[in-house]
Write a structure and sequence with these properties.
The structure is a homodimer.
Chain A: H1 7-20, H2 41-51, H3 64-67, H4 114-123, H5 136-142, H6 145-155, H7 163-174, H8 183-188, H9 197-209, H10 211-214, E1 232-234, H11 243-246, H12 256-259, E2 267-269, H13 291-303, H14 309-320
Antiparallel strand pairs in A: 1-2
């Protein structure tokens, strides 16, 4: 008993097949950069400071890195993250490693660029807790004189500390966080020993089983589309399996929460497989703890298939081969709070 | 109207004068290392991972670095720090830069070594929230397979993941966090241009005013004493000034909370001046926001003196010269939570 695939889903499927099915390739070593936000060494360094600075949150305790931890493969390995005042988020924090390659950001694709994405957590009441859309974040940064100096150096002008420039700097730093040279990339580049036989069997299986129909391209997240054009699929597509209830996969209606378009109910931005072995727990609600179980869930909910244990093991071996080299990051020095006048708890 | 100095305080004063008054020197570039905890490259790296790992706290959100931030000169620039469940600590978080040189740790000197100190926040219900003195911290670490492998490599044995080894590794990393080569150090080493005339006047003033009677030695924190032998002074010694009430300096009884010895009431471990310009706000309760005000408070409460504005400016210029070179620290990669089985919120 199969559930009908909704028309929108079929449309997206045909895009996938037309443009890039099975055209998996090497992870690029350069990222797309917006015309109005060129990457410079000083901007990247400023963005790194801001990324690690907990003073950008209402309580002064939560930084971008708290949930998207550079030291933990870009995640916090929790189902949901804890923001200011111990409040819990409602979707699993995705890694920002390789997010520079995504055509949209967030599970529901509600931001087109890394710049737009960075505004989200800053202004989210259960994340960093600042006032969404206001310049409260910029006002906080302005209280730290070292930042004023650095923003002037990077952006010029007399009043460069704006929310737009804050997120431009953060996005520039994030664009350095890519992970090339995985065993799979070396394999594609000709090193046939880079994948062991289990991983090679896994690669054949994800092709023959239909996984790559959606998880196509170098990122394994669908066709390469213009920035802002997300590739979405319905999840779960098939509900005739025990996983849907067990992992509560229908509770969150996905992209509908962003668009309020009924056709977007349970549609989700297709996630990259890059470094997937390091980013447990899985899915938008972080309900699945292990990668083998995530593979079983996807086979059942998206392909209406039941894999054997051997098949699961082989697919996981292949997914393991998508773990790339994470860049070495030197810790920034955060500009000091001038004379202790910033006492975030008092905000 | 002067308050009587209590006998214990006089005794400590005489030690200071006998052993090292006015013998300010260059910050050493090597630290004392306990015989049973030699520093090795792998142990330092393991300690760095543990230092930055929020999974060592009950909620999985607070690491050593949350309050003693390597990127913020070892502090969080807040009066009190926020631990698990948004709970607030009761004393200002001291920097761990150069703490390896201290003869005791904590404001009240209740730990002799960095190893003992590290156990404190882990087991403090308003800091990292683990069960004090139990092996709960070690049990948490054991849930992360990568740590088991690394502990075996560093410490050997079949069950090396113990609380004692956790803090040994953390202390080894902390012993790398020293800040030599301040302008003052270069000045003492013969570069007479390293201090400008204001800073040089400030140096003369801290000598002639009596500040160095207690703030002696290369750390400006008193005589070099054997590890475990702290140098304590009464603060405030003089209460005939407006600061005692304004900054609520009598509310916390200091070392008495650790010893319950009446002679220890309002006794505090004398704090180092190294990097003091970067560690606002000041004093055990973080009540004083600026360094000039901290200088005025100390002159009044410890020397019964009122400084002119010019004197304060010069002393601050000298204190600024005690900011050393902070080491460049590369971010560790934290071993992953195996298959998402560590879900701290569920603890």
């Amino acid at each position: 008993m199969k559930n009908p695939i909704i028309p929108f889903s079929i449309a997206m499927l045909s895009i996938a097949i037309t443009y890039s099915a099975f055209s998996q390739g090497v992870l690029p070593t350069t990222v797309p950069v917006p015309k109005d936000n060129s990457m410079t060494a000083t901007k990247i360094e400023l963005g790194k400071q801001l990324y690690f600075d907990p003073r950008l949150s209402l309580t002064g305790t939560v930084s971008c890195n708290s949930c998207h931890n550079v030291m933990s493969n870009g995640t916090d390995n929790r189902p949901f993250s804890e923001g200011v005042h111990g409040k819990m988020g409602g979707r699993n924090a995705p890694t920002m490693f390789n997010a520079a390659f995504h055509s949209v950001q967030f599970w529901d694709g509600r931001a087109a660029t890394l710049e737009d994405q960075a505004k989200g957590p800053l202004g989210n009441p259960v994340e960093m807790g600042m006032s969404n859309g206001s310049e409260q974040e910029a006002d906080r940064v302005k209280q730290i004189p070292g930042y004023i100096t650095e923003f002037k150096k990077v952006f010029g002008g007399s009043d460069p500390v704006t929310l737009d420039n804050v997120v431009k700097a953060i996005a520039s730093f994030e664009r350095t966080l890519i992970t090339p040279d995985s065993p799979y990339d070396r394999f594609v580049n000709g090193d046939k020993k880079a994948l062991d036989s289990a991983a090679q069997r896994g690669l054949s299986l994800v092709k023959s089983s239909g996984c790559l129909t959606c998880h196509s391209g170098a990122l394994f997240d669908g066709p390469q589309l213009p920035i802002g054009t997300g590739f979405y699929m319905k999840f779960p597509t098939y509900t005739n399996n025990p996983y849907v209830k067990k992992y509560d996969l229908m509770a969150d209606v996905g992209r509908y929460t962003a668009t309020h378009n009924p056709a977007d109910k349970h549609m989700w931005h297709v996630q990259s497989w890059r470094n997937i072995a390091l980013t447990a727990p899985y899915f938008h609600n972080g309900s699945v703890k292990t990668l083998p179980e995530a593979v079983r869930v996807m086979a059942a909910t998206q392909l209406d298939k039941k894999l054997t244990d051997e098949q699961v093991t082989d697919i996981v071996a292949f997914l393991d081969s998508l773990t790339g080299e994470h860049p070495k990051v030197t810790m920034p020095t955060l500009p000091e709070t001038l004379n202790g006048t910033l006492t975030p708890r008092a905000q």
